[in-house]
Write a structure and sequence with these properties.
The complex is a heterodimer of chains A (785) and B (159).
Chain A (H helix, E strand, L loop, with lengths): L34 H5 L15 E7 L5 E7 L1 H4 L4 E6 L29 E2 L5 E7 L2 H8 L3 E6 L6 H5 L22 E9 L2 H6 L3 E9 L11 E6 L5 E5 L4 H12 L6 E4 L17 H10 L3 E4 L2 H7 L6 E9 L5 E13 L5 H12 L7 E10 L13 H19 L3 H8 L29 H12 L13 E11 L9 E8 L5 E5 L8 H13 L6 E4 L17 H28 L7 E3 L2 E3 L5 E3 H10 L7 E7 L7 E11 L5 E11 L6 H20 L30 E5 L22 H13 L5 E2 L3 H11 L1
Parallel strand pairs in A: 1-12, 8-27, 10-11, 14-15, 18-19, 25-26
Antiparallel strand pairs in A: 1-5, 2-4, 2-6, 3-5, 7-15, 8-13, 9-10, 9-12, 13-14, 16-24, 17-18, 17-23, 20-21, 21-22, 24-25
Helix pairs in contact in A: 9-10, 10-17, 13-14, 14-15, 16-17
Chain B lengths: L1 E7 L2 E7 L5 H7 L18 E4 L2 E4 L5 H4 L3 E3 L1 H4 L7 H8 L9 H14 L5 H8 L10 H20 L1
Parallel strand pairs in B: 1-5
Antiparallel strand pairs in B: 1-2, 3-4, 3-5
């Protein structure tokens, strides 16, 4: 077992910058270990290997937003050609669980069944058919007769929590629902100090309500799982997942078979962004395989992905702040009414991050956070990059701009006056952790001031206020400040295993799940740096529940910070063993020896390569395998920081919004792979711009989504994407591997509030609802006259 | 079943396929798995291939319509022993994240550079416009197109 207290040779201890030129592999941008095979089309995604004799699953989805299933008649379908297995509420066990794909026990309510006798949104599961071909399955589905007792549908959160509202989860089995009779999946409150006293002592009290809608993660590879029985009759599941180990545990629960009988394999994943944390498509093909003995595949169509997978929780935020004339914050409160849709996956933890990630960016002596997340008969919320923080920053960062406007203070100056910084304690960390009380957090590294300085210069902030306001095209500039976290403190855990090979190369086995983030490369870089070898010497494999050690999975911006540290510890252990073996060969003291450049050197000039040492230990001298493993978890959760700036042009005749320039400056500590960190930032901004401007769910009066295709649910294309600049602002996080913090989620927090701020600067109209469409602008300008 | 006869990646093929099958499925079921399924409605471009040198979305093209034509998939553009400079450029520019949309983008870049050896950034934007990517923000993909063009020009200039 590796030593937990391995000293970090670059740890400056006080957050100051280390000597970067001492890094050999990290903080550089080598070719990603998997990039070439992917560019060649050789990367093996779930659907790229098909077992012989595989059945295809298709689902009959609910056409009703809320209904009881009175009867299901599958008699005709059973006789259809190719049909092998039909699953529905009358032939599948009722096992309450959550699909949320979290650690155990999950903070999400166990309110889902594989198949229920009730449907709760248009697109809920009714009946699955497995057949020889997808076409056979679809033909069979068309013959299934379902009798529904249609119930009143609840299509807004306000209706959901109104007295006398029909109850969406009234069955006795679910557990963990906060107030099922009030349609509340969860409630949460936290406070520090006394906000009412803070408001009373303030020169200005400002209260605003903000609303932000549905959005979908939209990985280009949709959800897919392929299942089969291996020669030992064990269930093998190859699945596009962010959480192979949670998937295995939840499948065992749902299928009522032992964990030991299940193997989950994560192949290449075509993007996740949170939606593949959901254990959503494994159970049905697994049931088919267990019942028929045959391999089975279930792949969602794009329409199914948009309607029936998971989304970002729409939220209504009531923000209230008390400030002094000079801009000093006295009190800050946030009230959230969230929409979880038909099931409560991630409701509690997402909403806790809405407050917990966004409020502490600004220091106030008094805070209040009050959240309710309601069930509705609409698509289901889930994990989505940012995990509640985008909603929170939507409220906080527009409010800051509104305060600055009211007080006549520069928006940057207002933020600089109040923002958290290095050495500060996160004032809400204990009162509001993820889903409940948390752990104390002190900020040890913070590059936010530099991010703001760089961003204001790059965008040309001094031009703000000097644009011509008479033409049809009006320009404006805005900014936002942001933070996030690095892993879930006290919850996330990762482990790694390393072994040395005959030629000095090493196998690195991790449970960490590369879903396109680049973690296979980053973790290999960390191992190579610690061991003193090249990136090419590390052979990484991730992730497979039979072969790799545990990792909670790719979520909560945890992989670099948590999994990276487990790899670093395991590598340090292997390095110590390599040196010890050399000392034994040379009959000298280990502390005389130095390991670097894939060799151990004696002060007298002798050297043994890692390969020499490995061959000696494998075949000759004190025979053993040099190998080590390590686990890591953390009670610390260092936030990355960022400042985003943009310039927009609004056409006051058409309402068209053009983002002319965008600058995202981010402090992610030491970037292990700077190009990958920039890529995360650029991709996060792109996704955030869609959330800000184009991505929305349109429902008909019965709650059916009307725009479930990439033609109508508009994510940004290369033509829509503005020129942008991602700037990495280096700091050194002493608790992270080689000074690293997270980078993947923080960028998506920026664009939605930023566009409201920049558009306000351009046309003087404040939008408190996103996405902001040209029609909204056009109407608002006409109303203003 | 119908007979599908075409040139695929430079080799003549004759396959029996179900009538009504789309070209993506035909290619994938014959081992050409680099052509991806992202939407099956012609919106995302992950399934792009070259049909007589022209980029098409194979998910909305009936295989029967492609019969008799010259088809190039991502596998025909380069392989591990001889990656195409466009593939190398996507790798070197950091344009590959999850990699699911990458084959389609490489195909699109191939089609662009065949027509336009010195594309502007705007040309590159238009060439990639039909290729949805949710990871990269397209910045490094556009860099990759420019890098591929530069390298191709340099190679020709040096020849």
């Amino acid at each position: 077992m590796a030593d937990e207290t391995t000293a970090n040779p670059w740890d400056t201890g006080d957050g100051s910058m280390p000597e970067y030129d001492r890094f050999n592999v990290v903080n550089k941008s080598p070719r990603r270990v998997d990039a070439l095979k992917l560019a060649l089309g050789k990367g093996t995604f779930t659907d790229d290997e098909v077992p012989a004799g595989m059945l295809h699953v298709k689902m009959l989805w609910s056409p009703h937003a809320h209904a009881r299933i009175v009867s299901i008649d599958t008699s005709e379908a059973e006789k259809m050609p190719g049909v092998q297995c039909i699953l529905h509420c009358n032939n599948v066990s009722r096992v309450p669980h959550t699909t949320a794909g979290q650690g155990f026990p999950e903070p999400s309510p166990w309110d889902a069944l594989c198949f229920d006798d009730k449907v709760r949104f248009v697109g809920d599961r009714v009946c699955a058919v497995a057949a020889e071909t997808e076409a056979d399955a679809l033909r069979a589905i068309a013959t299934i007769k379902v009798e529904y007792e249609v119930l009143p549908a609840i299509l807004t959160v306000e209706d959901a929590v109104a007295p006398g509202a029909v109850q969406i989860h009234e069955h006795p089995e679910p557990t963990g629902i906060s107030k099922p009779e009030q349609n509340l999946a969860c409630t949460l409150d936290a406070s520090v100090g006394d906000v009412e006293a803070g408001f009373a002592a303030s020169d200005l009290v400002i209260e605003r309500t903000y609303r932000i809608g549905y959005a979908q993660q939209s990985p280009i590879e949709p959800h897919i799982a392929i299942t089969w029985l291996d020669e030992d009759d064990r269930l093998t599941v190859r699945v596009a997942t962010q959480v192979p180990f949670h998937s295995r545990r939840i499948l065992a629960q749902v299928l009522e078979i032992p964990v030991a009988r299940i193997r989950v394999i994560k192949p290449r994943i075509g993007g996740g962004f949170g939606v593949k944390q959901e254990v959503l498509v494994e159970d049905v093909p697994a049931l088919v395989t267990l019942r028929t003995g045959r391999p089975a595949r279930w792949c969602l169509t794009r329409e199914e992905e948009l309607v029936s997978a998971r989304t970002r929780h729409p939220s209504k935020l009531t923000m209230k702040a008390g400030v002094m004339k000079d801009g000093t914050l006295q009190a800050l409160s946030m009230e959230v009414l969230g929409n979880s849709g038909a099931y409560g996956a991630h409701a509690l933890t997402v909403v806790s991050c809405t407050g917990g990630k966004a409020l502490p960016l600004y220091k106030a002596p008094n805070y209040r956070f009050d959240a309710r997340v309601a069930y509705t008969n609409l698509p289901v919320g889930g994990a989505f990059r940012g995990y509640g923080a985008p909603q929170g920053f939507y409220g906080v960062e527009i409010l800051m701009d509104e305060i600055a406007h009211e007080l006549g203070i520069d928006p940057i100056a207002l933020r600089e006056k109040n923002m958290i910084g290095s050495g500060d304690d996160n004032p809400l960390a204990v009162a509001l952790g993820e889903g409940g009380e948390g752990f104390p957090q002190r900020i040890r590294s913070c590059g936010l001031p530099e991010c703001i300085t760089i961003g204001r210069e790059a965008i040309g902030w001094e031009r703000r206020g000097s644009f011509d306001k008479t033409g049809t095209k009006r320009r404006g500039i805005g900014m936002v400040a942001l933070m996030q976290g690095s892993g879930i403190p006290g919850v996330d855990m990762a482990s790694a295993f390393l072994k040395l090979n005959d030629d000095g190369s090493l196998n690195l086995l991790v449970g960490a799940t590369d879903i396109g983030t680049g973690s296979d490369t980053i973790l290999s870089q960390i191992a190579a740096e610690e061991l003193g070898v090249q990136l090419e010497d590390i052979i990484i494999y991730s992730a497979d529940t039979d072969l790799t050690p545990f990792d909670t999975g790719a979520y909560a911006s945890s992989t670099t910070y948590i999994s990276g540290q487990s790899v670093k510890k395991a590598a340090a252990g292997v390095k110590r063993q390599i040196i010890a073996a050399a000392a034994e060969i040379w009959k000298c003291e280990a502390d005389e020896l130095v390991a670097a450049d894939k060799a151990v050197r004696h002060p007298d000039g002798r050297a043994l390569s890692y390969g020499d040492i490995c061959r000696s230990t494998l075949y000759h001298h004190n025979q053993h395998q040099i190998m080590d493993h390590a686990s890591h978890m953390s009670y610390e959760c260092p936030p990355p920081f960022a400042a985003h700036f943009c310039e927009v042009e609004v056409d006051v005749e058409t309402g068209e919004i053009k983002v002319l320039d965008y600058v995202a400056a981010v402090d992610c500590g030491v970037a292990i792979h700077p190009t990958a960190a920039e890529g995360q930032t650029e991709g996060g901004v792109q996704m955030g711009l869609g959330y800000a401007l184009t991505e929305r769910y349109c429902f008909d009066e019965k709650g059916a989504m009307q725009n479930a295709s990439f033609a109508d649910y508009k994510i940004f294309s290369a033509l829509d994407m503005p020129d942008m600049k991602a700037v990495l602002v280096p700091t050194y996080e002493p608790t992270g591997p080689f000074g690293a913090k997270s980078v993947s989620e923080i960028p998506i927090n920026g664009p939605a509030p930023l566009l409201s701020n920049a558009i306000f600067d351009a046309i003087g109209v404040r939008f408190r609802e996103a996405p902001i469409t040209p029609e909204m602008i056009w109407r608002a300008l006409r109303e203003r006259g | 079943m119908i007979q599908f006869e075409a040139t695929v990646n430079g080799r003549p093929v004759r396959w029996d396929i179900p009538a009504g099958e789309f070209l993506t499925e035909t290619l994938r079921s014959h081992g050409l798995i680099g052509t991806k399924r992202g939407c099956e409605s012609g919106d995302c471009g992950a399934c792009a291939v070259l049909l007589d040198g022209v980029e098409v979305n194979s998910c909305v093209l009936l295989a029967a319509q492609a019969s008799g034509h010259d088809i190039v998939t991502i596998e025909g553009i380069g392989d591990a022993r001889a990656p195409h400079p466009i593939q190398e450029a996507f790798v070197d520019a950091g344009a590959v994240q999850c990699g699911f949309c990458t084959p389609g983008m490489v195909v699109a870049t191939h089609a662009l550079l065949a027509d336009n050896a010195a594309p502007t950034r705007d040309d590159a934007r238009h060439a990639l416009a039909g290729h949805l990517c949710r990871c990269t923000g397209y910045v490094k993909c556009l860099d990759a197109v420019e890098l591929a063009a530069e390298r191709t020009a340099a190679a020709k200039g040096g020849a």
